[in-house]
Design goal:
Elements (H helix, E strand, L loop, with lengths): L6 H21 L3 H11 L5 H26 L4 H21 L9 H17 L13 H21 L4 H12 L4 H25 L5 H51 L2
């Protein structure tokens, strides 16, 4: 299947993966670029295989971004673990069900949730500018576990908007600044990607050569995006977050109404 790719299609997918890594490293939403590109470039490939290949291509850039953020930003490791481990489990469960549950039925719900996220963030211009942690430590851990498991399951079975939902929980519910939330979200995204890749790989639903090629492009974009985000801080991350969320609303909205 990989050998059947034309040069033009390969260049198109590499370019999309680069921009996906760039955007995703700042505020999430890389799947908004890379996944549709794969669906366009691989029109005859099963959707599950496209999803698996997308996860493989994404995990390299997300891991790179997580490492770069970690050098500059030191969020609570307990919160990271409490969110990332359940997210891994949830993603693996979701991925195992991805080919059995009609995800089209999820689109209207996701669309409404994304609109709520965008409006809430827009109406609170000071949200996430500074870090003002909420709840006692034990309560933050409990919220992190519940959010990680739920969002991880969603990412494994469907995916669009995962970064937006993670960021909102971390900023609005837990009180992290946008830049710190982005650093935590990257680690959680690595966890969900690995969980999904394990399941997709076991079922032969990954084009490994293509996924690795996309991974290299994704890493390049992630390096540039992460460095830009660290320099720009929470103000830049918030702006990109809003842009990505609105773009997701448009994309999911088009998919939702096109299916009727």
């Amino acid at each position: 299947m990989f050998a059947d790719l034309t040069l033009a299609t390969g260049l198109f997918l590499i370019s999309a993966s680069f921009f996906a890594g760039f955007v995703d490293s700042i505020a999430g939403g890389g799947g908004l670029i890379q996944l549709p590109a794969l669906l366009i470039g691989l029109p005859k490939t099963d959707t599950v295989t496209v999803l698996g290949t997308n996860k493989l291509g994404s995990v390299f850039g997300t891991t790179t971004a997580a490492a770069l953020y970690r050098r500059q930003i030191k969020p609570d490791i307990k919160v990271i673990a409490a969110m990332a481990i359940p997210a891994f489990i949830g993603s693996a469960i979701g991925a195992s069900l991805a080919s059995r549950i009609p995800t089209q039925s999820m689109r209207p719900i996701v669309l409404v949730l994304l609109i709520v996220v965008a409006i809430y963030t827009w109406l609170k211009p000071d949200l996430g500018k500074i870090e003002l942690l909420r709840h006692a430590s034990k309560r933050r851990i409990q919220i992190s576990i519940a959010a990680g498991l739920t969002i991880g399951f969603y990412d494994g079975i469907f995916g669009p908007g995962t970064g937006s939902f993670l960021m909102l929980i971390l900023v609005a519910s837990l009180g992290y600044a946008f830049i710190t939330a982005s650093a935590i979200a990257k680690v959680v995204n690595v966890s969900t990607n690995v969980g999904a890749i394990m399941i997709f790989g076991l079922h032969g639903a990954i084009i490994w050569q293509l996924g690795l090629m996309l991974g290299a492009a994704n890493v390049t974009g992630a390096v540039i995006g992460s460095r830009l985000a660290i320099r720009g801080g929470s103000v830049l991350v918030r702006k990109v977050f809003l842009i990505v969320t609105v773009a997701l609303i448009i994309k999911v909205g088009i998919d939702t109404f096109a299916s009727f």
